[in-house]
Fold these 2 entries.
Entry 1:
Amino acid sequence: MRTIDWVVLIGTLAVIVAYGTWKGRHKKDLHGYLLAGRELKWPTIALSIMATQASAITFLSTPGQAYTDGMRFVQFYLGLPIAMVILSITAVPIYHRLKIFTAYEYLETRFGVGTRTLTSLLFLIQRGLSTGITLYAPALIVSVILGWNIHVTNVVVGLLVVIYTASGGTKAVSRTQVHQLLIALGGMAIALIIAIHSLPQDVTLVEAFRVAGRMGRLNAIDFRFDPKTQYNFWSGLIGGAFLALSYFGTDQSQVQRYLTGSSITESRLGLLINGMVKVPMQFFILFVGAMVFVFYQFVAPPLFFNTVQRAKVSTSQYAAEYEKLEAQHQTQFTEKRADVQRLLTAMRAHDDAATAVATTALRNVQERETATRTAAASLINRTQPGADNSDTNYIFLTFVIDYLPAGVVGLVLAAIFCAAMSATSSGLNSLASTTVVDIFRRLGKPHATDAECVRLSKLATIAWGLFAIAFAEFANRLGSLIEAVNKLGSLFYGTILAIFLLAFYTKRVSGTAAFLGALIGEAAVVWCAVATDLAWLWWNVIGCVVGVVAALIVQRFVPEQREINEAQQLSS
Amino acid sequence: MTKWLSAVGSRLSGKTETMEIPTPDSRQPTASEPNWRLLYTAVITELALLIVIFYAFTKAFA
C-alpha cells in the first residue's frame, strides 16, 4: 500500500465515523435512539436496507464467486422482489400501526410472551454470530492479502463501528449507511472500469463477454430443476423468496430500518425500491467478478490466491509437489491463452466450426486447470488440516492490490471497510434494541425509564460489539464467506418465518401450538442440514412449511390451550 | 439473582401485553399516496423482465 492509499483509506473511515457520531447527537429518548424518531424518508430507508444486506462479504466474496462458479449466484436474489411486495402489503402496515420497536413485540400480541422470547433469542443467537462473521470477513481477507495483523484489524474496525453506533443509535447507522453504500458501489464501478480497460487492446467488450460466456462465467439463469443444486432459477425464486420474507420481514436488523420511516408510504417505498434495485446491483457485482476472470485469461493468475496458505505449503514437506503443480498451472495458462486467442480469431472470422473447436479445447484446458487448483487446495489441506482451502474470497482483492493504481487501491479498501461497517452497525443496533426491548424491558424491568433504556441500549451495543469482535477472533474454516453467512441465517429463518406467518394469517392457532410447531420446524431444518445434502436455500422452505403444518396439527390436539388463550385475551 | 429469575419466570407465564392487532392494509389509496397496485405490478414486471434479459444474456454468450 502506498501513502496515497493510506490517506484515502484513513480519511474516508474517519469522515464516516465523525459524520455518524455528529448525525446521531441529541437523541435522548428511546424512540429517537432506536427508531431515529420515525422521521426518515424512503431514499434513506432504501439505501439503508440495501447497505444492511450488502456487507464487505458481498463486495469481496461475490466477485470471487463469479470467477470460480460464474454468475448463477444472482438467482439467489430472484425471490427478493416478490418478498418486498408481500411485506409491503402485509407486515409494514401492521408494524407501523402498532408503533413497535421490534418485530418480536408483535408476536406477543398474538401468541404470548413465550413465543416472543423464543423468537428474540433465536434472533440474538443468529444475528450475534452473523455480525461476528461480517466483521471477521474483511479483516481475514485484508490480513492475508496485505499482511496486516488480523486481530488488530478486527479490533480497530469493530471499535470504529461501536463508537458511532453506540453514541448515535439508529439515525447515525441509517445516515452513514447511505454514504457507505455509495462509496462501496463507486469503488466497485472503478474496479470494473479498470478490469475492462486492462484487457489487451485488441479485445473488445463484446469479445470479453463471449470469452466469459464460453467458459461458463455468464451463466446467470439456469431453469433446470435439481434440489441438490445450490443455485438455479427454482431454488432462487422459491427458496430465495422464503429467505427474503424471513430476513426482511422478521429479522430485526432489517425491520428496524423500515420502522424508521415517517409513514407507511415511506417504509413501503423503501422496501419496494430495494426490490427493484437489489437484483441488478448483485448482477453488477457478479459481473465485476466475471470481468476479473476474463482479465486473468490474459494475465497469469496465481495457482492459489491465498498468499498465507501458499507460503505455508511452499515451506512444508509438500513444497516440491506444490512447485510441480505451479509449473503445470503455468503450462495450462499458456495453453489456455493460446486457445482464447484461437477462439477470438475464429469468432472474428465468423467461422462457426473453428469457434466450436476452440471452445471445446478451451473448456478442456479449463477443466484441467480447475483440477490443478483442486489438487493445490488438497495439498494445502494436507499441509495444515482444517486450513482455509477456499480461495474464492481472495481473488478480487488480489486483483485490486496487484493491478489497480495508487489511490484507487485505498478507495476500494475504504469501500470494503465501509460495507463491513454498515452491515455491522445495523447488526449491533438491532441486537441492542432486541436485548433492551424484548428481554430487559419485557422480562427484567417493565417500568424502566426512557433514559435508563437509552443508557442500556448504548451498553448493549458496546457489549454486542465486543461479542462480535471476540467471535471474529475465533471464526475460521468457513469456506466462501458469503455462503457461510447465508447458510447460518437459513438454519433459523424458515422457523422464524413460520411463527410470523401463523401470526399474520391464522386466527385459531394458539401460542403453545406455534411454539411447538416452531421447535418441530427447527428440528426438521437441523435434520436437513446434518443428514441430507439438500441445497441450503431449501432449508428456509422446509423450516417454514414444517413449522406451519406442525403448528396447525398440534393445534387440533390442544383446544383447551386455545380456549385459555382466548379467555385471557377477552379478559384483558 | 434468584429473585430476578423468578420475576422473569412469572412474566414468561404471566399475562400477555395487549395491543390492538391491525389487519393487513386494505385501504384504498388516498390522493397523496402512490398507486400501490401499480407499484407492486411494476416491481414484479421488472423482475420478469430481468429474468428474460438474464436468460437472453446467458444464451447469447454461452
Entry 2:
Amino acid sequence: MKTISRLPLLSCVGGSMMVIIGGCLILWMVVFGCKSMDAVTDIGTSLGVASGVITETQAESISKSAKAVAKTFEDFTPEQEYYIGRTVGAVILDKYKPYRNQKANAYINLIGQTLAKASDMPETFGGYHFLIQDSDEINALAAPGGLIFVTRGMLRCCRNEDAVAAVLAHEISHIQAKHGLQAIKKSRVTSAITTLGVEGVKTFGGEELAQLTDTFEDSISDITATLVNKGYSRSFEHAADKGAVTLLSRMGYDPYALIDMLKVMNTQLKPGGLDFAKTHPSPKSRIADIQTLWEKPADGTKSKARQDRFMVALGGI
Amino acid sequence: MVKLKISILMFLLIGLTGFAAFAVGKSMMSIQIKKGELRLAPSFLGKIVARLYYGDRVYVLEEKGSWRKVGLSAGAAEGWIHASALTPKTIVLRAGAKDVETAASSDELALAGKGFNQQVESEFKAKNPNLDFAWIDKMETYVVSEEEMKQFLKKGRLSPEGGF
C-alpha cells in the first residue's frame, strides 16, 4: 500500500521539478537578454573602433556625451534637490527677511503641511516647511524640495483660511511639478553629471569640488533669476493654479478661495511693482484661466472655527 | 528519497520566488527621503510602527492607492508608507569608484551624498558668507505632529478625500 501511495507523489514531484527548472531557464534568459540590450550602444562604438572608422578616444567621447545628453533635471536625486532648495531658500531670505511671529508661522505650517500630506507627492527628502517674510510686497516663492516662503503682503490678500490654503497649494504644486529645477540651464545639469562621473572617491578633490560648486552657484542663479525676476511661463502658472484647485477640493477647502484671493490681489498690486506684478500673469488673466474649472460657484459655506483661528493667527498681519 | 526530493522541490521553489522577485525588480524599493515612517494603516494619521532612513531597502508586500505595505529586508517590521517616499533604485550610501561608473550608465543606482551635497553647500557658504542659512535650518524644525494635524482637521471641519 505504501509503495502504491508513493508513486503518484513521486511523479508529481518529478513533473513539478521539470516545470520549475524550465521556469528558471526562461527567467535566466530574460534577465541576461535585457542586459545584452543595454550594451548595444557600447557594442556599436566597439565595432566602429574595430573597423577603424573611429578612434578609441572618439568612441569614449561618443559614449560619454550620449550618456550626458540623456541626463535632465529629473536626474537630480531628491537629496540633491534638497540641497539646491536650501540654498535657493537662503537667497530668497536675503531678499525678504523672516517675519518673527511664531503664532503666524505655526499656523501656516499647519495649513501647508496638512495640504502637502493630501497631495500627490507628500514625501520629499527634507519635507515641506513654510515661513512668512516681513515685506509689504505681494510675493510667494517655492524653493525645490519643499521650502515655501510667503510675504505678509501676500497674506493680506487672503480673507480667510481657505485663501491662505490656496496660496500655499499653488506653491506646493510648483514644487511637485519641479518647475524650479526646470529653470536650471541644461548645460549646468550636464556639467554637474560630468563632474560626478570624473569623481570616483568618497569625498571630492579640491578641483572637482570647486568646479561642482561653480555649477551649483550657476544653477541657484538660474532658479532665483526665474523666481524673483523673470517669473515662470504662463503655462507653469496655470498648471500650479490648476494643481491648487485640485488640492483644495481634495482637502475639503473651498477651491473658489483662489479666485477670491486673486480678486483681492488685483486691487492691491501696484503697477510696475517688483513682486507678483512683475513675475506672474495678471490676477484677471489667472482668473480667466481657471474659472472654467467650476461648473458652479462655491456654495459659500465657511467654517466659523476656521475663520476664528485665521483671525487669531493672521488677523493682524 | 521522497524527503530528499521534497527538500529539493522546496529549495527550488524558494529559489524561484527570490529569483522571480529579482528578475521582475519591482518588489524591492529604497527609501529616498531623509527619514520616513512605517505606519499601521495606509494613512498619515496611522500609528507609527517603525522609522526608516535614507537608503533603507524594503520589500513591497501590498499596494493600496498611493500607499505601499512594505517589510524591512531584515523582516523586523511591516507597515505602510506613501509611494512618494520610495524609489526602485538602489541607493548606494558609500559609493566607490565602481558605483560611480555604474551609476553613470544605469538607472538602477542612485548615489547618496554625491553631486550637490553638504560639502558643496559648505563650499558655497564659504564663498557667500552674506547668506544666512540659520533660518533655513530653523524652518526645517517646523514639523507638524500627527496629533496637531488631527486636531487641525477636526476643528476646521476638513475631511481629506479618501482619508490621507
